Amino acid sequence: MNFLPKKNAPRGFIFLVDILLCLAALAIAYLIRFDIVDIDSASVQNEWKILKLPLPIYIIVMAVSFYFGKTYSGIIRYTSTQDAKRIFYVITLGSLFMLALVPIRYYYFDHSFFLPLSIIFVDYLASIFLLVSMRMLVKLLYVETQKSRGATKNIIIYGAGEMGLITKRTLERDTNIIYNVIGFIDENPKLRNKLLERTPIKPQSYIEKWAKKNKIDNVIIAIKSPKPENTRKLINTCLSLDIEVLSVPPIENWINGQFTSTQIKKIRIEDLLGREEIELNTENISNQIDNKTILITGAAGSIGSEMARQLLNFNPKELILLDQSESPLYELEIELKNYNTSILKTVVIADVSNVNRMDNVFKTFKPDIVFHAAAYKHVPLMENNPSEAIKVNVNGSKILADLSNEYNVEKFVMISTDKAVNPTNVMGASKRIAEIYIQSLNKHSETQYITTRFGNVLGSNGSVIPLFKKQIENGGPLTVTHKDVTRYFMTIPEACQLVLEAGSMGKGGEIFVFDMGESVKIIDLAKKMIKLSGLEEGVDIDIKITGLRPGEKLYEELLNQEESTLPTHHKKIMVGKVKSYDYYKVKAQIKTLVKQYESQDNFAIVKQMKNIVPEFISNNSIFSSLDKNS
Catalytic residues, which ones? Predict the structure, then answer.
């Protein structure tokens, strides 16, 4: 039964209650000083005579303190630590003022104390205690009486640190649902089997035991920087037990510094695939980027835009953001206005395959470093449009590389793909040809040409995860090309950080290969995304096998059979030992290939691509006939 008023108490009423509580604190102070058992009427009359003057002053001092301290303005049912701090400061200042009146009365008036020092001290403590306790009691009563008795959830909190404790207290204050915190999970052996607010702390292996005893509704990840392997293990355990996993956002994302239960969100698939945070050589990167003009092609894309965000941390002189996609580039421009305003950011709409436009860009801005992320990357689309793959991925890269040499660019960093290794499709082959050209050009230029090669990035435009999310929102089915197809994944920030690191360590001519971790079966990814969405495969939503698309591989490779790697100082970056090519021969071959664009003869174009990249063997494609006839 809710016996508390629904409306907030008037401020004047709270002000009056606070004064009465202070008077009660003063009475308590006198009772403690004179011992309630030994008080007689004579003592009371004597003390009352002494108190006649100080009492009105005491009331005025406290009233003025409350008025200017605004202690009465807070909503009692939502009392926070900030309100308690305000009461502490206000009572402290009032008590200090009364303490100052003691010598003033004694030396300048009637040689008697304004109030005994012990009374002031005990009153100070009692006043703080009563005012804070009253507010906390009202808050507790409000929370308990407002809770809905129809909904109860059993919760396990992952993380027994400060964030875990805040999460527990936040859930207990929730007025809509009764949260029953079964226990904490923490891998710290020092906390194991201890109690936190009478709640047990257990290792992760204990989840199954709790799940057998109780129906666990949620496990909430409430830890600042969880180890990715622990998070993966936790999520996989919960998915097998049909327990929904939620997470608390980072402290810096809390609304106005306050955390509420509404901010708890469902876990993302990216959290399941995430890896350890990368340690960058920021000093080396900063030395390369500081006060330099940086050109980013494909700046509106997933990789290009994240490169722009991260480069702003290293104080470049100017960022040239180049892309032919107007709307996403405009959105990036608006976003980056909120970043470091001292760094000049220039947006350029342009097609990298237009040599005159690119020449004007280099002539106008004279970039020191080029990060080349512009490319067509969708395998099925390029398989059907080989001429466009040649125009952009090959000729566009060649134009940028040649202009970098002509305009004395210090470094040219090309972002490639694992699909360039033993390519089975036009897209991968076009990227491999671009790799070969800039590698061979490096021997004839003062510019340092560097290639970075990695696999799929989580959440990039057109990748499988955004596709699955849309399919889940639409009720399915989730489409998987083959039950055995696997892919490597890394996050967009991780990929960009490794590009920056590789770019700073490269001396020219290298192909840097990134450690992509373990490959993931796409069908397993689909099943986990269904479970993370709170759905059941085959009941709420289906998975449909559609067959491999033209040019698609079952699995990706980072090196071909003739390549190997050497380690670098960074454990996640290797240098590929790849075949070298004669620059003039490659240049002539690419010239022939680019001329084929005019004919729009797809078979002639792909045949020339296979001449340049002999390991290019088409898979599940109309161009497979060219391999059979060769």
Answer: 419
